[in-house]
Amino acid sequence: EEVTESDDEDNLSSVLHQRAKMPWRACGKYLSAAGILLLPLLLLSQLLKHTVMVAIDYCLALWTEHAISIKIEPETKNCSQCMEFDHSPYSKVFSILCCLGIVLCLVTSIAVEWTGLKVTKKLHSSLLNKIILAPMRFFETTPLGSILNRFSADCNTIDQHIPATLECLSRSTLLCVSALAVISYVTPMFLIALVPLAIMCYFIQKYFRVASRDLQQLDDSTQLPLLSHFSETVEGLTTIRAFRYEAKFRQKLLEYTDSNNIASLFLTAANRWLEEYIGACVVLIAAVTSITSCLYNKITSGLVGLGLTYALMVSNYLNWMVRNLADMEIQLGAVKRINGLLKTEAENYEGLL
């Protein structure tokens, strides 16, 4: 019995270790199917877009700071003539950056959709060729529903869901990195606290991804019986009334609703917990370092406001980054399953293709 318990614990620990790991092979297969030229275009457009977004916020901070300083100086010096602030240079730079950001957003969206389309076409074509040339023993050992599921549900996930999740994941990751970079630029003292904070976030997201993925699957699995029971109740309403089973079906519907609400409640609570506590730590550290630097190093109020604004948004960015990472991990299972069928050995055939 002791040996059996130890084996079960080892198997459980190995399963948990596998669940905590990202499917990097499936991710590499997806990115390699995108091509050599398309992937750098996607990464470069994302980097340029977020660089322009940070430049827009920085330009607004400088614009506000200079405008306020021009209005305050005559009041402090008791000058009779007030200087008028020239807004035209800042407005021109701001307009150019905004137009450039719009163009880069369009390029990024096109690159993401183009990547998803190319990957789907390549994987679908490769899978179709493998299935057509597969030996007969493959169809005898593999259920037909499993093969159809690869062509329907998994191809649909690769075609529609993975590109959108990839775009959201890259956007939230770059927004989080740019926010931390802006806070570190405004208050270099934040870099001291950034290292332990990054270590804490790494271990938290490592365990949160497993919990979030399981809760998401639990939410989906408890929603299906609820919808099925509701549709069956509506279709058989006359029979239910004839046998006077209204109370029984109502109680069953309430049980399915409670089960789904419990899973949804825990999923929402887990997401809020990740957002609130980590975000509160980042805002606290950024606020303390900004105020300290403003008192002793005379940092401008515009830059302090810019740093605090980004600190308030870090929690939201970090939450979406981890949630998109968990969604991406689930959706890459479709690529993993298709990749498993692509390893099927083709039958020896010397005819015309």
TrEMBL record:
Q: Which UniProt keywords apply?
A: ATP-binding, Membrane, Nucleotide-binding, Transmembrane, Transmembrane helix, Transport
A single Pfam family it belongs to is ABC_membrane
Please give the superkingdom of this protein's source.
Eukaryota
| UniProt cross-references to InterPro entries, sorted A to Z | ABC1_TM_dom (IPR011527), ABC1_TM_sf (IPR036640), ABC_transporter_C-like (IPR050173)
Q: Name one GO cellular component term.
A: membrane
Chain segments annotated as transmembrane: 30-48, 93-112, 179-205, 277-296, 303-322
The UniProt record lists the keyword ATP-binding: yes
Residue span(s) of domain ABC transmembrane type-1: 41-329
Gene3D superfamilies, alphabetically? ABC transporter type 1, transmembrane domain
Molecular functions per Gene Ontology = ABC-type transporter activity; ATP binding
The answer to keyword rRNA-binding applying to this record is: no
The name this protein carries in UniProt is ABCC8 protein
Give the source species. Acrocephalus arundinaceus
Q: Which gene encodes it?
A: Abcc8_1
